[in-house]
Structures are given as C-alpha cells and as structure tokens.
Design a protein that fits this description.
This protein is an alpha+beta fold and 222 residues long. 54% of the residues lie in helices and 6% in strands. The protein has a 4-stranded mixed sheet, with helices on one face. The structure holds glutathione. Residues 1-79 form the GST N-terminal domain.
Length: 222
C-alpha cells in the first residue's frame, strides 16, 4: 500500500492528503515524530520533514511540492494544476504564495511557534512572534476573500492545488483556534465550500493529543 508519512497538523502534509484524496488515489497515513530523527526516516528524507510519500514500488518522495508535481505527472486524469498554461502558472504562483509567503508571515508565527518549536527542541514560544502572526493573518484573509470573490476557485475556474495549499494552512490554524472567520465573509464562504468536499473529511476528523479544536473546526456550516 502507498504510505504518506505525516503529522496531523502539518499544512504541507495536509495539502498532499487533499491532493491524493481529490485524485482518488488510495493511501495510508503514518504519523512521523520528526523530532525523534528516526534513522530510517532520515534515509528517506535527509531534511527530516513531513510529508514523505512512499509509493507501492518503494519509491520515496519528499517535499510536498515535489510530491504534488509527481502525482500530477503519474496520475494525470484529475489535474491539480488546471488545464491551460495561464491557469497552471496562476496555480503555481498561489501555491508559492501560501507555502512560502503565508507560511513565513502567518503559519510559522502561529502553528510552528505554538506547537512545533518546543517539540523540535528549539525553545519556548515568543509572544511577540505570535502577535505578529495574528496581525499578518488579517490582510491575508482579505486577499484570500478577494480571490474567492472574483473567481470560482482561488486560481481560476476549477478547484486546484492553490485551494488545497490555502486550505491546508488555514485548517491547521483553525484547529488551534487561531482563525477569526468573522473578519472576512468571502474567505469564510470559500472555506465552507472546501470543508464540504469529501476529500476534506479525514482532516476534520483529525485529533491531536493535548490540543482540542474549537467546536466549529469540524462543522462545515460554521
Ligand atoms: N518544503 C517542505 C516543508 C515541510 C515542512 O517544513 N514540514 C514541517 C511540518 S509542517 C516539518 O516536518 N518540520 C520539521 C523540522 O522543521 O525539523 C515541504 O513542502 O514538504
């Protein structure tokens, strides 16, 4: 069976879980405590990050973007990137927006600072960093809301990896209670549409010991 090594709240693993499910590719999840630095895992991915996909052939692929491009090339029937060159360029731009810019300005300051830093042995959360994360989240939600208002899906006419990347980050932050959806109605409406997709259900069922999500986390009509 195909295996995805992951952590339940990792936005990068969540993006790949959504991509696999939307492409209807079966897989099993294995939790990888990256902070244990398991030698067998380091052999698969010297960066010691999740996600890592292990194909049935034994092929190991690390890095969420490498995995998603591989999946689209290996299983092209349902595309993650859109059909036209312009659509595909826009999907790539927005995946980078969420995985690089949003991650640096928001996810790292909230999810990493609060959840991962201590586990990785890199010190205690810094309240200034967390405050900056909240301040940055607001304009990012506005941009997302603007995209959702002006297009059917974030990158264009069809749902794509741009939506999965954005939803992966926001769902991890929503689990830890850090998203105030009342600040942007269009962003909230887009997230409700994402939550009601069958591929999203396993993410809404995730539970992490010691962290209880807010009641609206798993509710598609929040
Ligand atoms: N560029 C990588 C980033 C993956 C990543 O940073 N994963 C985090 C969890 S969200 C991780 O495993 N961190 C462990 C560490 O930084 O040592 C990808 O897209 O897969």
């Amino acid at each position: 069976m195909r295996i995805l090594h992951h952590l339940p709240l990792s936005p990068y693993a969540r993006k790949v879980r959504l991509a696999l499910a939307e492409k209807r590719i079966p897989f099993e999840l294995r939790v990888e405590r990256v902070w244990d630095r398991r030698p067998e895992f380091l052999d698969m991915n010297p960066a010691c990050t999740v996600p890592v996909l292990i194909e049935e052939t034994g092929l190991a692929i690390a890095d969420s973007y490498a995995i998603c491009e591989y999946l689209d090339e290996a299983y092209p029937d349902i595309t993650l990137f859109g059909r036209t060159l312009a659509e595909r360029a826009e999907v790539r731009r927005l995946v980078s927006w969420f995985d690089d810019k949003f991650n640096t300005e928001v996810t790292r300051n909230l999810y990493y600072e609060k959840q991962m830093k201590r586990l990785l042995g890199r010190g205690n959360p810094d309240s200034g960093v967390i405050r900056a994360g909240y301040a940055n989240l607001r304009p990012h939600l506005e941009y997302l809301g603007w995209l959702a208002e002006t297009r059917a899906w974030l990158a264009g006419p069809q749902v794509s990896l741009a939506d999965f990347a954005a939803a992966a980050h926001l769902s991890a932050l929503d689990y830890i209670g850090d998203v105030d959806w009342s600040t942007n109605e269009s962003a909230k409406e887009w997230y409700a549409r994402m939550k009601s997709r069958p591929a999203f259900r396993p993410l809404l069922a995730d539970r992490v010991s010691g962290v209880t999500p807010p009641p609206h986390y798993a509710d598609p009509d929040f």
